[in-house]
């Protein structure tokens, strides 16, 4: 026989222990779930950016695709799910860029002697950006093929309709497979508000895209002032995509008012000089020889190009430090929302021995942050051993020749 008091104490003890164990187990499960959510797999759906698209042409596109496949006899990888493009290979390579939470102030650089064959910043400035030599690099007389597309205008919806149909005679960009993995990026100039791209077609020099893009809110009276810019690229899983060429089509000579106009244009070698200004970036550098520490301050940017449909951007700056041919450190600033003239004022410090300074390069990438699509690089600046401009080399020499003094300068951003 147990007294009621003792029985009550035993029951209360059992209850407290049970609740404590339950809370402990729940806390551990919750922490595990949070860890999984913090490091998601690099998979995302690439959605078309800056445009509104109706699904009225999807059934027609599927019929055309079946007819094209029967004629050409070549299978295409991946389907066009409406106007959503799933680029898993690119997603696995790059991964989604997210808004940084703020960088720590000091980072130790893991300096090594042997760095293998990783590309240096100056090598990636080439138009192709690949490790293999591009067939279009030796001269301008190389045939880059033709691009066929059509232009139409929908008066009731005030929409410009562009169909990228196919390309012929593309050059070989992958020496191992003797083929290419082509896709096309399209932009409407001069505002560059509308940016779209087709899916990647694997191992073909005669790609058939048959993808229709509808751009709404474009008055017919403004068509004569617009230029269609097609950039033909070949996807590369292990480095930057190769640029095959470009096609520029002024709509001043095209009249789609009477119906669809089909055009075929020769793909020309890309002319980087045609590109508009990418804006300017102000940075400050100082080197402390006693502490052997380089301090980099990203101050502000100005006159950045419009990247969003709202006419603004959400820029942030990614800072990469290279020693010779190897990237040894990377940091990011915070994202500045809805501005073309952001002010960052963020500082980063790196421990760098003085005898390694001649081989150090610092790369600044101004990037437009996007929630639903892949982040896009607005412009690029390199200071140090691989600086491509006279102003960048002069700035670096002033920093090295003036120990302990912070040197701040504005630099024009180049295209990435």
Automatic annotation (TrEMBL):
<feature type="domain" description="C2">
    <location>
        <begin position="143"/>
        <end position="265"/>
    </location>
</feature>
<keyword id="KW-0472">Membrane</keyword>
<keyword id="KW-0597">Phosphoprotein</keyword>
<keyword id="KW-0106">Calcium</keyword>
<protein>
    <submittedName>
        <fullName>SYT11 protein</fullName>
    </submittedName>
</protein>
<comment type="similarity">
    <text>Belongs to the synaptotagmin family.</text>
</comment>
<dbReference type="InterPro" id="IPR000008">
    <property type="entry name" value="C2_dom"/>
</dbReference>
<keyword id="KW-0968">Cytoplasmic vesicle</keyword>
<dbReference type="GO" id="GO:0030276">
    <property type="term" value="F:clathrin binding"/>
</dbReference>
<dbReference type="GO" id="GO:1903531">
    <property type="term" value="P:negative regulation of secretion by cell"/>
</dbReference>
<dbReference type="GO" id="GO:0006906">
    <property type="term" value="P:vesicle fusion"/>
</dbReference>
<dbReference type="GO" id="GO:0030424">
    <property type="term" value="C:axon"/>
</dbReference>
<keyword id="KW-0812">Transmembrane</keyword>
<keyword id="KW-0677">Repeat</keyword>
<keyword id="KW-1133">Transmembrane helix</keyword>
<dbReference type="GO" id="GO:0048791">
    <property type="term" value="P:calcium ion-regulated exocytosis of neurotransmitter"/>
</dbReference>
<dbReference type="GO" id="GO:0030659">
    <property type="term" value="C:cytoplasmic vesicle membrane"/>
</dbReference>
<dbReference type="GO" id="GO:0005509">
    <property type="term" value="F:calcium ion binding"/>
</dbReference>
<dbReference type="GO" id="GO:0000149">
    <property type="term" value="F:SNARE binding"/>
</dbReference>
<dbReference type="GO" id="GO:0098793">
    <property type="term" value="C:presynapse"/>
</dbReference>
<dbReference type="InterPro" id="IPR035892">
    <property type="entry name" value="C2_domain_sf"/>
</dbReference>
<dbReference type="GO" id="GO:0070382">
    <property type="term" value="C:exocytic vesicle"/>
</dbReference>
<dbReference type="GO" id="GO:0005544">
    <property type="term" value="F:calcium-dependent phospholipid binding"/>
</dbReference>
<dbReference type="InterPro" id="IPR001565">
    <property type="entry name" value="Synaptotagmin"/>
</dbReference>
<feature type="transmembrane region" description="Helical">
    <location>
        <begin position="6"/>
        <end position="29"/>
    </location>
</feature>
<feature type="compositionally biased region" description="Low complexity">
    <location>
        <begin position="124"/>
        <end position="139"/>
    </location>
</feature>
<feature type="region of interest" description="Disordered">
    <location>
        <begin position="117"/>
        <end position="141"/>
    </location>
</feature>
<dbReference type="GO" id="GO:0005886">
    <property type="term" value="C:plasma membrane"/>
</dbReference>
<dbReference type="GO" id="GO:0001786">
    <property type="term" value="F:phosphatidylserine binding"/>
</dbReference>
<feature type="domain" description="C2">
    <location>
        <begin position="277"/>
        <end position="411"/>
    </location>
</feature>
<keyword id="KW-0479">Metal-binding</keyword>
<dbReference type="Pfam" id="PF00168">
    <property type="entry name" value="C2"/>
</dbReference>
